[in-house]
Design goal:
- The chain has 177 residues and is mostly beta strands.
- Helix content is 6%, strand content 42%.
- The chain is built from two helices and 14 strands.
- β1 and β2 form a beta hairpin.
- It is globular.
- The N and C termini lie far apart (36 Å).
């Protein structure tokens, strides 16, 4: 695996070393020792999968607050997404910075999202699936979110002609801090 730190402190883009032969391919998507050698959380307690029918579907931007802050490892297993993270740790030098990256099933790249970072994505293809282990159990009382179009961040989302988003994600308040 190739770990490349992103412009958001503690977040890594992870590329896979793929072995191929006439049968197909083989690759690791997670290795406790490799993650720990980069100082990353290597214990996950819950594995989630989202399936989105239409391109233009936005999920997020979500995060959990203490004591249930979570690390996520985002992997697109079918289709493609534009994955977005925002650093919301006031003590961080990248506080309020955001970044986006395309994760495509065929390229097998993953995004390691540290705690204290909001996460969301927009599907770029119909029938897209995203698999992501998390380091903490879902806790409704710790759940928070940032609206996809919050003016604090002015995220540059692709595919602006269509948008499918839940009422819950539409109704997150503006980020004030």
């Amino acid at each position: 695996m190739i770990f490349t730190e992103t412009k958001i402190k503690g977040a890594f883009l992870i590329e896979i070393d793929k072995l191929e032969d006439e049968r197909g391919s083989f690759f690791r998507i997670w290795c406790k020792e490799e993650f720990e050698s980069h100082g990353l959380i290597s214990q996950f307690v819950q594995f989630n999968k989202s399936c989105s029918r239409k391109a233009g579907t936005i999920r997020g931007l979500h995060y959990q607050v203490q004591p249930h802050q979570e690390v996520k490892l985002i992997c697109c297993t079918k289709g493609a997404i534009y994955d977005v993270i925002i650093d919301i740790k006031p003590e961080s030098h990248t506080y309020k910075h955001w970044m986006g990256v395309e994760l495509i099933a065929d390229n097998h790249k993953m995004l390691y999202v540290p705690s204290g970072v909001a996460h969301g994505f927009k599907t770029l293809e119909d029938n897209t699936e995203v698999f992501y282990p998390v380091s903490e159990f879902y806790s409704p009382e710790s759940e928070c979110g940032i609206r996809w179009d919050d003016p604090t961040f002015t995220i540059e989302w692709p595919i602006t002609d269509s948008l499918i988003i839940s009422d819950k994600d539409k109704d997150w308040p503006d980020f004030f801090s």
